[in-house]
């Protein structure tokens, strides 16, 4: 800005520089080719009857809105959508509540203990989700799984040894919920902790001197300060959990009886198991539209939280 | 950390005698109770922390524990919390029967290509979006944020169709390209942050000395954003290394599988329900990622909130 005042010509010249164009073009071309063109093609495909036959013959017809009509009258779709919304809500609430708790816990610990918890968090976070899904199947294995053994030892639920978690809708979902929350908490906890350490200590001290209870200090001062971060983390979690695919696919394949089949699983099954690619594309378009709405919230908050574009 | 301030210093001067009495009473109570209360709070916090740590590390511990057990010890009705006869047998199985090195090579080729390409492209693009002012910059930034959020499952169908028409399905190049698309917006976003942190004066000084735009970039700016290059390389590495669904859809020939697909098919392909083998393979696969997470943990939080590795 100062430059503008001293020498307006300098900035003008810079503005006309072609440098940004050639700096941006390579990345721009790749993004257009690999992301934008496919999305346009996705919309196009959703209006065709592209299927397995087409993969060999290349022949397909335009079917207008038929795929969308099929979709909107298909109870499987509506159930997948309902499940996705419900699952996302349950996972986000679980991970945000635990994450907020752990973040606050970190502020209460001595250096050594805090280091231990941080390392533990990073281990859980760093596990690739394909590996963690396999570990989950092993933990919840009927007969030899350590979770079933542990639950049996509690003597609360009776003999759980041979319970097959993948055979029951509720249990199957519970195990996936635990897997997602287990891996989501570290990011949330560490992000919130970083924000929590920025709160000026004098504020809390003053409130304590005025006789406020710890809970009130937390609720009135800490949570107020954490609000923007908390909101951002929540929106991101919603987007990520809405998109969860690997863990569900690897742990339950959407089963039993589609009980854990979310939109992602439904799309994948339609497009790559049944090879109804046109129909799958229509589901993807709807999924993406919902996601775009969520993304708008995210971007608006990023801008509001001071990220300058 | 929390020494009690003497009354009157650093706090507001009480207006009435009544108020003053109330404050001093509360303070006296605080000072009296504080050491004991704080000790108790510390004790409770530590207990919760220990319980939490045990629960949260358990899956990792159980993976490692099982990986070092002989089969007879892994499949017992009463779980054994330490291997009685630790063995590398499972790892040997992963390397020999599982052909770990072949899939490691596949993953290495694709991931290395994707990381190098996305860093190079991202470096130039983020320089443009941070060190230059031009019309439409804001629009481009928003656009990048939006494409970054596109769900992998939605891109999968059209990418699969387009790539199969131009013969890229099943090739390293095709998979690499899909990964570049997935991580490029994010690397641009992260590196841009590092560029913005460089003071304008540095660039101006170089310009006054007669450096061209290219020289300013390569001699001055790029070396200064090295930490950003490293951080976003690690992010790109993790995203590409962990991907399952794209690789699973694109690489139909088993000899071209990448590690995650190999790992997921390990059960049925080679060893049946050999959990020891599966866990050993999982350890091998997770190790580099966990190591990287440890190294860049400081950058992780700020980077992830800017959009991040897709969960």
UniProtKB/TrEMBL annotation, chain A:
Keyword DNA repair: no
Subcellular location(s) of the protein: Cell membrane
Membrane topology type: Multi-pass membrane protein
Primary residence: membrane
Domain ABC transmembrane type-1, first and last residues per copy: 81-298
Chain segments annotated as transmembrane: 21-44, 77-103, 115-136, 170-195, 216-240, 277-299
Keywords of this entry: Cell membrane, Membrane, Transmembrane, Transmembrane helix, Transport
PANTHER family in alphabetical order: BLL4140 PROTEIN, DIACETYLCHITOBIOSE UPTAKE SYSTEM PERMEASE PROTEIN DASB
Protein name: Sugar ABC transporter permease
Organism: Frondihabitans sucicola
Record lineage: Bacteria, Bacillati, Actinomycetota, Actinomycetes, Micrococcales
TrEMBL record, chain B:
Record's subcellular location: Cell membrane
Domain of life: Bacteria
Transmembrane regions listed in the UniProt entry: 43-64, 108-129, 141-164, 176-199, 220-241, 275-296
Domain (ABC transmembrane type-1) ranges: 104-296
InterPro entries: BP-dep_ABC_trans_perm (IPR050901), MetI-like (IPR000515), MetI-like_sf (IPR035906)
PROSITE patterns (alphabetical): ABC_TM1
Region (Disordered), start-end ranges: 1-36
Ranges of biased composition (kind: Basic and acidic residues): 18-33
Membrane topology (UniProt): Multi-pass membrane protein
Keyword terms of this UniProt record: Cell membrane, Membrane, Transmembrane, Transmembrane helix, Transport
Pfam families linked: BPD_transp_1 (PF00528)
Keyword Transmembrane helix (UniProt): yes
Predominant cellular place of this UniProt entry's protein: membrane
Family: Belongs to the binding-protein-dependent transport system permease family.
Protein name as it appears in the record: Sugar ABC transporter permease
